[in-house]
Specification:
7 helices, 174 residues, 3-stranded mixed beta sheet
């Protein structure tokens, strides 16, 4: 059995985004149950010089769905600002990305193998192949921002555990 670029990326992207969706559901419930204002979450940070929860969620989508779209286009840059960065908008952003990732076929992603993609930030440019970009840039960034979003909610008292972050594992059933 071969292991493809699709196998190495899309199922993990979906699993991580689904886990993020799940922790956001738990955050909403925790905030409702405790009479807290859910709209404080998007601006929460781990510390003053880190970007807020809303940015972390935007980056989780950016380094999953938008990473594939960036490889398709041949360029990838910094994330665009969100049109709606309230909590419901963040939830919708994650759910939309999950839906779009689920619509990708193995051929959509596997056909990108070997393709050139350039990370662009102003005048700064980093050349990659699709595989190098997705495996050494996109996936590590996805997990950094997903972990940071998880940590922000944990620090705010949302009852989360490691399994909430891991999401649905691919367990052998037979």
């Amino acid at each position: 059995m071969s292991f493809s670029l699709f196998d190495a990326t899309v199922p993990g992207y979906i699993r991580t985004l689904s886990a993020i969706d799940g922790i956001m559901v738990k955050a909403r419930k925790h905030y409702q149950d405790n009479g807290l204002d859910i709209e404080t979450i998007p601006g929460e940070r781990l510390c003053g010089d880190m970007l807020p929860f809303s940015f972390q969620i935007n980056c989780v989508v950016h380094h999953s769905l938008e990473a594939v779209e960036g490889v398709q286009a041949g360029t990838f840059g910094i994330p665009n600002p969100l049109e709606k960065d309230d909590f419901a908008g963040l939830e919708a952003h994650v759910q939309t990305a999950i839906g779009k990732l689920k619509a990708l076929t193995p051929n959509d992603v596997n056909s990108l193998a070997g393709k050139d993609v350039t990370f662009v930030m102003g005048d700064f440019r980093l050349p990659f192949t699709a595989e190098g970009f997705l495996m050494s840039f996109s996936i590590p960034n996805l997990h950094f921002h997903a972990t940071t979003a998880y940590d922000i909610l944990r620090v705010k008292g949302v009852p989360l555990g490691k399994q909430d972050y891991l999401g649905a594992m691919d367990i052998k059933t037979a």
